[in-house]
Amino acid sequence: MKHKLLALLGMVLLAHPIWAQEGIPLPPPAADEPAGGGSEVAVLAGGCFWGVQGVFQHVKGVMGAVSGYAGGRKFAAHYEMVGTGTTGHAESVQVTFDPKQISYGRILQIYFSAAHDPTELNRQGPDSGTQYRSAIFPTSPEQAAIAKAYIAQLDQAHLFRSAIVTRIEPDREFYPAEGYHQNYLTENPTALYIVYNDLPKIRNLQRLFPELYRQDPVLVAK
Questions:
Q1: How far, in Å, CA of 21 to CA of 19, rounded?
Q2: Rounded to two decimals, what is the model's pTM?
C-alpha cells in the first residue's frame, strides 16, 4: 500500500503539519462558459487524487468524481507503474458536473482555491514526482481556452506568492484508478495522511464556498 500510510510518515506529519493546504480566496474566471444542457466532464490533477476527489465529491452540481490517471498511455495506467514517475501519467480526478448548477469556470475556481497549491512544481505537500503535478486535461477547446485565460488572470493579479505552474494538457485520455483508491477520503477519515493533508481541503471548500458545499458526498459505486 502507499508509502503515505506508513507509520513513519505519520510521525513526520504529526511533527510537521505544514503540508495542510490553507486555501486562498480567488475571484471567479472573467471568461466562463454559458450554462449548458447535459452533463459535462472536467479532468484535473493536483497531487494525490484522494484529496482532489474528496473535495469535488462535496460540491453541489457535481454528479460524480472518479480517481484515476491521465497524461500517459493506457497500458501504464496502473498505480504501481504510475508511481515510478516515468509513465507521463498524473494522479487525476474526472469530475462529471451539471453545467446548469455549476460552470466549468467555477470548477476551476474551486480547484485553484481549495483543492491544491497550483504553485508547487511536480509535487503536493509530502508527495513529489511528475505524477503529482498540477495539470488540467481539457475535454474541449472551450475548456482549454477558459483554463488558459484563468491562469493568466490569476497570475496577473499576483494572488499567489509564486507563479502558477499548472499545465494544460489537451487530448489526453483518462483511465479510472483501482477500486481501493475510490472514495478513499470518505472511507478513511482517520488515516494520518487524510487528516493532515486532505481534510483541510474539505474545510477550505466549506469556508470559501459555503453555497456550493454539500454535506453528503457523491460516491463512486464499487
A1: 6
A2: 0.92
Q: What is the pLDDT of residue 35?
A: 83
Please give, one letter per residue, the 3-state secondary structure of 50-76: HHHHHHHHCECCEEEEEEEEECCCHHH
Residue 146, in any domain of the structure: yes
Count CB atoms within 10 A of the CB of residue 158.
9
pLDDT in tens, 114-154: 999 999 999 999 999 999 999 999 999 999 999 999 999 99
For residue 157, the domain's CATH number is 3.30.1060.10
**Interacting residues of 22 by C-beta distance below 8 A, sequence separation 6+:** 200, 204
Cell numbers for 95, please give them. Answer: 469530475
Tens digits of per-residue pLDDT, 23-47?
999 999 999 998 878 899 999 999 9
Tell me if 219 sits within 8 A of 67, measured CB to CB.
no
CB 160 within 8 A of CB 24: yes
CA distance 22 to 90: 23
Structural domain boundaries enclosing 144: 35-208
Query: Could you tell me if residue 115 is inside a domain?
Result: yes
pLDDT for 30: 97
Annotated catalytic residues are 48
Asked whether 209 and 110 are in contact (CB, 8 A), the reply is: yes
Give how many domains the chain has, as a whole number.
Answer: 1
Distance between CA atoms of 104 and 206, rounded to whole angstroms? 19
